Amino acid sequence: MEIVAQVFDWKITKTELDYEEDKIKALNPQTEQSEIRRYAIDQLIDRYLLMQKAIDLGISLNDDELEEALMDLMDDIEAPENKVLINRPDRGEQLERVVRSNLLIQKLLQTLNICGKTLTDEELLRFYQDRKDFFCREEEIRASQIMVKGRDENARHLIELIWHDVISNKNFEQTDLDKYNGSPAIYCGDLGYFPRGRLIPEIDKVAFSLQIKEVSKPFLSSYGYHIIQVTDRLENQAVPFMEIRDCLKESLQEIEEEIEINRILSEIREKYKNSITVFDQAYN
Predict the structure, then answer these.
(1) What pLDDT, in 10s, does the model give residues 140-171?
(2) How does DSSP classify residue 263?
(3) What is the pTM of this model?
(4) Residue 59 DSSP one-character state
(5) Going from the N-terminus, what domains does the chain have, and what CATH number goes with each?
(6) CB count, 10 Å around CB of 194?
(7) Nearest 5°: phi and psi at 175?
(8) What does the DSSP 8-state code read for residue 218?
(9) Which long-range contacts (CB under 8 A, 24 or more apart) does 251-255 make?
């Protein structure tokens, strides 16, 4: 069994490092391999430092807690990091390590009153009001389109005929497209609400230049010829506090927990730096 690092008496194996890398890669597939390796080593060292801290504080686990934690993991088996674990040939050993370490660290955070702290509505409202400009909904418009697929002369001629029909009827709904059967493919429908940058640049540019009920002139994209009619517009506006309260609470609590965990880890790493060893083979 190849040992790549050691924290106190905890020996970190190459197998464990490989699993940690696979888990990080599943969540961050675009990250470079060398960066994944460094991050995986740091994650494992941090994990064992926190586990040792838990043991020093007299925190322990019993069989019922381990069984319950294992069942929770199996319930969330579709998560990318859990799929990686289950698909490994050494999943039995890794499963026990992961469940045990996660549970021990969770109990440590609860003991230190880091995990599960609750922000009051007053604290959340104060945070929201101090940063109200940040909690704004982007301008959005709703539009309908008619598109003739193709970029040739026939497609251009057809979109102009349709455009004249739309202008005569003042809206898309009263335009009879059935009479154009047998012509190049015609696509029409409601595009729904969308902010700037959501759709292709050609549609984006034209749609946001129109007023409500205004119909664009035919324009060309890589897909073909289009006509756009804007049917509604939502201006920039503040998102109501009650609409984002729960999401804001969850995000802020996660941030506070992360800051506190990093503070504790920084103290532990400095205090026990002589008890951490990373061998050369860890980076090979």
Answers:
(1) 999 999 999 988 888 898 899 889 888 887 66
(2) H
(3) 0.55
(4) -
(5) 3-118+244-283 (1.10.4030.10), 136-237 (3.10.50.40)
(6) 17
(7) -90, 125
(8) P
(9) 252/119, 252/124, 252/127, 253/117, 253/118, 253/119
